[in-house]
Hints:
Elements: E1 7-8, H1 9-15, E2 18-22, E3 31-32, E4 37-38, H2 41-44, E5 56-59, H3 61-68, H4 72-84, E6 89-92, H5 102-111, E7 114-118
Parallel strand pairs: 4-5, 5-6, 6-7
Antiparallel strand pairs: 1-3, 2-7
Amino acid sequence: MMANFNVSLKKLIERVSMEVVYTPQDLDTICVEIAEVNRPGLFLAGYYDYFDKLRLQIMGLAEMNFLSGLSPEKRYEALDQLFRQQPPAVIVGRSEELEPFPEMQELAKKHGVALLRSNETTCTL
Length: 125
């Protein structure tokens, strides 16, 4: 882990071109303290051990396909668990082909979590 890593979400968005879907506050004031990111597939599937809520959460093809296979109730529940952790941001990759689920924006607002989109694949984010 990098010592004293601390960068604002605004700086990250400038470095990697991202679209802001929702932000609860000014992006300058949202700090990312850990350089590593997380793909929350296991968390969405209900495995909550070893989850680091300080990491940016990257949703790629696997996560979005998994969620689209769930019933609307189960999907809402899984996403609610994720946004409830209040990570610095949830980022949906491959924005040309992946649309954030409508409930993602609702839950981002409910829990005060930034929701972003990127054209990048999850490998390059």
